[in-house]
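Lab notebook: predicted structure, single chain.

Context: the supervisor wants predicted structures on file for every construct in the current expression panel, including those that have not yet been purified. This is the next one on the list. No modifications to the sequence; it matches the entry in the shared construct table.
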Amino acid sequence: MSDKKLPVLVKQDKALTQYLDSLLMEIPEAVPEVVAETAVEVIDKVDVVTDVVVKDVGEYPDQMPEWGKAPFKALFFNVGEITLAVPLEKLSGILTECDDIKVMPGNSERYLGVLVHRSKTIRVIDFESLVAELSGVPKVASSDEVLPPNRIILIEGERIGIACRNVTAVEEIEPTDVRWRIGSTKRPWYRGIVVDKMCALLDVDALLLLLHDDAEEKR
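Prediction complete. Output recorded below exactly as produced.
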């Protein structure tokens, strides 16, 4: 990184974990299978559960993004001790050179600073600070050694980057693998939960809108 000292990247793992856990409370649990007393009732209950599953995916097209209505590839990455996922088609690239981030005066704590890449100025997000800010959890001082990001995930045509420690995998996700968020939320930046990973699936478009709206308010 540049000679200028970056803002302290405080470990917010506990706060971030609690915040992401609270996302699960906003999403309805899968309908449990009811054990019937007779064979005839078992058939009836299975039919009902099948109808509900189809309804959960198929009858809420306005609640699901277009990219989520068919199998899609997602990139999994780590922020602190938390794993997050993002649709691959929403990414502009991944940077491995993260040593030239420069702090800009007046920047919110949600930004580490800016980085120039291919003649473009990239604003780099400290996602832990962003989540802490949105959840109302204040940052506290830490004496732990500050670990710089190892990767920067680029979005919005390489104009914004999400700092992360590492990228873990790219996997194909079925629509039924996700517990999709239904309805409005105070946390629009996530679209649902990838069940087998128990991690938040980011909504890049909503995240960008949140960042842009915040920038407009501060003008």
